[in-house]
């Protein structure tokens, strides 16, 4: 009897101690918990229980003259006739920065090679690079700080001269006169939809992509042709972020203050790494940019706000990646659309992913069986994030 009693007491002591430990842990980690759990719970309840976002449209609407201030930058480089008299299937904007010359070169000689696409895939795809003006100080890893005001001026001029030369050679840079920085990405988004509206309104689809993604052009062309045949409208496809909360941590690159966006969740949007819209959606986004306050500097979120205000919502395609990099595997190459984070390996990936043997190895009953098993192993590992979702194995 006595022994039993002590046992219970010990049990309770352990319980009490554990509770204290958990509580103090929670107190210590509250900030973290608030960021990653509470924020998401709040945002999910907003997204799934309320889901009206009516305030957003109202409070983002501004007079047209003021909205114009986000778009009336002068073109430094432009190609007015890029699309004229052509039956363009896809107008593909690559968001790039003045310094990323190497990335542009790699894209031109791999997935963004227009003449390859025309000859081999028999499709008209226009690949243009959108960028702003070089800043006064070098950005990126290779930059060295200039010495004084005159040096900064010349840095800017040197980069711009190089861009002009690059454009004379390739004819594919679309540049506006705003400083090319992370916090000006929304201006770059507006630049794209305005350019599409004025210079290429007949393109069947419009795509936006980062300059460090890989696009499996043959797969994408086949897919978009099929969508065109079905006459899709209201089409916006990519990796969808649903019920994403604004990040309130000041150290984050994606920090957004309450004054800029007071609600607990963003309207659904696709990851900026790469997404496609149909012609009608591109026009609607253009119309939205004529009325909305574009001072929120996360471009894909602003895209979500524009689309929401026009009644367009995004759809998920499992083989469009968000931040993630696709596993290297034939069965993935057979289905992939985009994959993020490719710089050095882009030439090699282009070669292996478009090799005709990929189709041979993945077709037929055995090939499909093998690929289902391989994709299950690659995509459905627990604690494995950032690549394609597990359901890609069954798609
Ligand atoms: C693009 O493709 C064409 C045809 O396949 C090829 O002749 C050309 O060299 C390629 N361009 C680049 C920059 O690799
Ligand atoms: C965006 O570009 C404008 C125009 O060049 C410039 O004045 C502004 O400082 C830039 N904003 C940011 C956050 O870099
Ligand atoms: C746009 O929003 C910002 C805050 O995000 C605000 O400071 C600015 O006044 C707004 N512009 C207009 C024209 O309402």
UniProtKB/TrEMBL annotation:
Mind listing the UniProt keywords for this protein, alphabetically?
Glycoprotein, Glycosyltransferase, Golgi apparatus, Membrane, Signal, Signal-anchor, Transferase, Transmembrane, Transmembrane helix
One of the protein's GO biological processes: protein O-linked glycosylation
Q: In which pathway does it act?
A: Protein modification; protein glycosylation
Kindly list the places in or outside the cell where this protein is found, as annotated in its UniProt entry. Golgi apparatus membrane
Q: What is its EC number?
A: 2.4.1.-
Domain of life, source organism? Eukaryota
Pfam families, per this entry?
Galactosyl_T (PF01762)
MF (Gene Ontology): lactosylceramide 1,3-N-acetyl-beta-D-glucosaminyltransferase activity
Q: Which InterPro entries match?
A: Glyco_trans_31
- Cite a GO CC annotation: Golgi membrane
Signal peptide span per the entry?
1-31
Question: Main localisation, per the record?
Answer: Golgi
Recorded catalytic activity of this chain's protein: a neolactoside nLc4Cer(d18:1(4E)) + UDP-N-acetyl-alpha-D-glucosamine = a neolactoside IV(3)-beta-GlcNAc-nLc4Cer(d18:1(4E)) + UDP + H(+); a beta-D-Gal-(1->4)-beta-D-Glc-(1<->1)-Cer(d18:1(4E)) + UDP-N-acetyl-alpha-D-glucosamine = a beta-D-GlcNAc-(1->3)-beta-D-Gal-(1->4)-beta-D-Glc-(1<->1)-Cer(d18:1(4E)) + UDP + H(+)
How does the protein associate with the membrane?
Answer: Single-pass type II membrane protein
Query: What protein family does this chain belong to?
Result: Belongs to the glycosyltransferase 31 family.
State the protein's name.
Hexosyltransferase
Species of provenance = Merluccius polli
């Amino acid at each position: 009897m006595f022994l039993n009693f002590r046992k219970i007491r010990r049990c309770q002591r352990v319980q009490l101690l554990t509770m204290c430990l958990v509580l103090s842990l929670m107190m210590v980690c509250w900030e973290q918990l608030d960021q990653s759990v509470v924020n998401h719970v709040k945002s999910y309840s907003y997204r799934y229980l309320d889901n009206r976002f009516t305030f957003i449209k109202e409070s983002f609407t501004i007079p047209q003259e003021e909205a114009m201030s986000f778009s009336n930058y002068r073109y430094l480089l432009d190609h007015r006739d890029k699309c004229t008299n052509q039956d363009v299937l896809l107008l593909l904007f690559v968001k790039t920065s003045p310094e990323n010359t190497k990335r542009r070169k790699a894209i031109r000689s791999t997935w963004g090679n227009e003449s390859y696409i025309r000859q081999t895939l028999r499709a008209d795809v226009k690949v243009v690079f959108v960028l702003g003006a070089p800043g006064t100080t070098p950005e990126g890893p290779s930059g060295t700080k200039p010495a004084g005001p005159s040096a900064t001026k010349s840095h800017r001029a040197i980069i711009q001269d190089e861009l002009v030369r690059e454009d004379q050679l390739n004819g594919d840079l679309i540049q506006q006169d705003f400083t090319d920085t992370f916090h000006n990405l929304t201006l770059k988004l507006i630049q794209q939809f305005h350019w599409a509206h004025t210079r290429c309104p007949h393109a069947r689809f419009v795509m936006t992509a980062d300059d460090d993604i890989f696009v499996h052009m043959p797969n994408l062309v086949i897919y978009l042709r099929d969508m065109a045949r079905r006459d899709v409208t209201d089409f916006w496809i990519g990796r969808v972020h649903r019920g994403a909360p604004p990040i309130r941590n000041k150290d984050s690159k994606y920090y957004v203050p309450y004054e800029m966006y007071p609600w607990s969740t963003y309207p659904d949007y696709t990851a900026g790494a790469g997404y496609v819209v149909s012609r009608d959606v591109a026009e609607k986004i253009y119309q939205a940019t004529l009325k909305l306050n574009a001072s929120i500097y996360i471009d894909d979120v602003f895209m979500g706000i524009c689309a929401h205000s026009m009644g367009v919502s995004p759809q998920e395609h499992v083989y469009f990646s968000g931040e993630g990099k696709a596993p290297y595997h034939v069965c993935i190459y057979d289905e992939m659309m985009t994959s993020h984070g490719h710089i050095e390996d882009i030439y090699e990936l282009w070669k292996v992913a478009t090799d005709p043997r990929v189709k041979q190895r993945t077709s037929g009953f055995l090939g499909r069986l093998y690929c289902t098993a391989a994709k299950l192993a690659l995509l459905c590992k627990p604690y494995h994030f950032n690549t394609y979702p597990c359901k890609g194995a069954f798609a």
